[in-house]
Design brief:
disordered C terminus, mainly alpha, signal, 0% strand
Length: 443
C-alpha cells in the first residue's frame, strides 16, 4: 500500500510540478500577438492542465486515505454487510499472482498456428484492415477536431473551435468502457485477481497522455506528433529500467539512437509558416514530452498488472473505468462538461466527429487485442508501424503539411529503425526457441 501510494503521489506531484515549473515560460516569452492566438488566459494549456490535475487530485487523495483506512483496520477480516464484496474487490482483490501469460491469448495463438494457411491469411488481412481503418480514421478526425473550426460560413465568419481536450478523452473512455464491459459479460474471462484501485495508476497516466496528445495538435502538426509517438521507445526503455528494472540489448540502444536522429532531422527541418511563434513551437514540444513520459509509465505499469491473472479486455475495462471516473469528476468540477455538451448541440458535425472518434478508438483497442492474441506482438508492431507511415502521408495530403527533403529523410530513418527493431527482436526470439528445442547430448 505504501509503495502504491508513493507511485500515485509521485505521478500527481510530477504532474503538478511539471505544470508549476513551466508556468513561468509562456509569461516570460509570450507577447501581445501570442495572447490573441491563445484566446484568453483560460485557454492556456498550462492553466487547463493545472485545473485537470487538481480535479483528479480531489478524487485520488480521498481514495488514497480510504484505502489506507480499510487496510489499517483489517477490513478483509472484520468487514460485513452489503458493501463488503465491493470494498474487497476494490481494495484487496485476490492477491494471488500468476505469470505474465494470458491463458485465453496463448490458447488462441496456438490454435491459429495450427489452422490452415488460407484461413490465417484471411485473419491477417482482417486484422490489418481493421487496425488501419480504425486508427487512420481516428488520426484524421483527431486533427480535424483539434485544428479546424466548426460552424464557419461566409456570413458568420470563421466559426468556433472546440478547445476542451479532456472532454474528448472522456468520450473515448466511456465508449471503450461500455464495449469492454459488454465483452467481459458476454465472453468467458479468467477470474479477476487484482485490487481494482491498482488500475487507477495506469488510468491517471493514460488520461494525462491522451490529454497531451489532443492538446499538442493545437501547437504542432500531426506528422510531428506521429514521429514523436514513434520515438517514445526511448523513454519507454528508460521507464522500464526505473519501474520494472529491465535490461536491454545493444541493438535496442542503437535503434533508439537512430530514432532520435530521425526525429531531430524532421523537427529541425520543419517549416514554421503555420506556427509562427517560438512559444507555440516550444509549447508543442513540451506537451509532446509530457505525452511520451506519461504513456511510457502507462505501458510499464500495465505490464506489472499482468502479473495478476487477467485478460487484456479486463485490463481495458479496469483502466477505462477509473479514467471515466477521473475525467467526468474533473469536467463537472470545472463546469466544462455541460459547456462541451452545449458545443455538441450547437454543432452537429462536431457531435458526429466526436462519436466517430470514440468508436474508432474503441474498435481499434479490440483489434489490438485480437491481433496480438492471433499473431503475436511482432506482427501487430509491423502493422502499426505501417499505419504511422500512412498516417503521415494522409495528413500531408488532406491538410497540406509541407515536408522538406531533410525532413522526409528523417522520417525514413525513423521507420528504418523501427523495422530494424522488429527484425532484430524476431531473430532473437527464433534463436532462443532454437536453443530450447536443441537437445543436449551427454558424453
Amino acid at each position: 500500500m505504501r509503495a502504491a501510494g508513493r507511485v500515485m503521489c509521485g505521478v500527481c506531484l510530477c504532474s503538478l510540478c511539471w505544470c508549476g515549473a513551466l508556468c513561468v515560460v509562456p509569461s516570460v516569452l509570450a507577447d501581445a500577438d501570442d495572447a490573441s492566438l491563445l484566446g484568453g488566459w483560460q485557454d492556456v494549456w498550462l492553466f487547463r492542465l493545472f485545473l485537470n490535475v487538481l480535479g483528479y487530485a480531489s478524487i485520488i487523495i480521498p481514495g488514497y486515505f480510504l484505502i489506507g483506512y480499510f487496510k489499517r483496520i483489517n477490513y478483509l477480516e472484520t468487514g460485513r454487510g452489503l458493501c463488503f464484496p465491493v470494498i474487497k474487490t476494490c481494495v484487496f482483490g485476490n492477491e494471488s499472482k500468476t505469470g505474465l501469460v494470458d491463458d485465453a491469448s496463448t490458447a488462441a495463438r496456438n490454435e491459429s498456428e495450427s489452422s490452415s494457411s488460407a484461413r490465417q491469411a484471411v485473419k491477417l488481412i482482417f486484422c490489418a484492415v481493421g487496425l488501419q481503418a480504425s486508427y487512420l480514421t481516428w488520426g484524421v478526425l483527431q486533427e480535424r477536431v483539434m485544428t479546424r473550426s466548426y460552424g464557419a460560413s461566409e456570413v458568420e465568419g470563421s466559426g468556433e473551435r472546440f478547445r476542451d481536450s479532456q472532454f474528448l478523452v472522456f468520450m473515448n473512455r466511456i465508449l471503450a468502457l461500455t464495449v469492454s464491459g459488454l465483452w467481459c459479460v458476454l465472453l468467458k474471462q479468467p477470474r479477476h485477481g487484482a485490487p481494482m484501485y491498482k488500475y487507477s495508476f495506469a488510468s491517471l497516466s493514460n488520461i494525462l497522455s491522451s490529454w497531451c496528445q489532443y492538446e499538442a495538435l493545437k501547437y504542432i502538426s500531426f506528422p510531428t506528433q506521429v514521429l514523436a509517438k514513434a520515438s517514445k521507445v526511448i523513454p519507454v526503455m528508460l521507464m522500464g529500467k526505473i519501474v520494472s528494472h529491465k535490461s536491454y540489448e545493444y541493438w535496442e540502444y542503437f535503434t533508439a539512437v537512430l530514432i532520435s536522429l530521425g526525429v531531430s532531422m524532421f523537427l529541425l527541418s520543419s517549416s514554421t509558416d503555420k506556427h509562427p511563434s517560438t512559444v507555440t513551437t516550444f509549447s508543442g514540444v513540451v506537451i509532446l514530452g509530457g505525452y511520451i513520459v506519461f504513456d511510457s509509465f502507462t505501458s510499464n505499469w500495465q505490464d506489472n498488472l499482468f502479473k495478476y491473472k487477467m485478460s487484456s479486455v479486463q485490463m481495458m475495462f479496469g483502466v477505462n473505468l477509473f479514467s471515466c471516473l477521473l475525467t467526468v469528476g474533473s469536467l463537472l468540477e470545472q463546469g466544462a462538461f455541460f459547456d462541451s455538451l452545449a458545443f455538441m448541440m450547437r454543432h452537429s458535425e462536431f457531435a458526429f466527429h466526436a462519436v466517430l472518434l470514440s468508436v474508432c478508438s474503441a474498435c481499434g483497442q479490440l483489434f489490438i487485442f485480437y491481433t496480438i492474441s492471433q499473431f503475436g506482438a511482432a506482427v501487430f508492431t509491423i502493422i502499426m508501424t505501417l499505419r504511422q507511415a500512412i498516417a503521415i502521408l494522409l495528413s500531408c495530403f488532406l491538410y497540406g503539411h509541407a515536408v522538406t527533403l531533410v525532413g522526409a529523410l528523417g522520417v525514413g530513418v525513423v521507420f528504418l529503425a523501427l523495422f530494424l527493431r522488429i527484425y532484430a527482436r524476431s531473430r532473437v526470439k527464433k534463436s532462443s526457441k532454437r536453443a530450447v528445442q536443441t537437445p543436449v547430448q551427454k558424453v
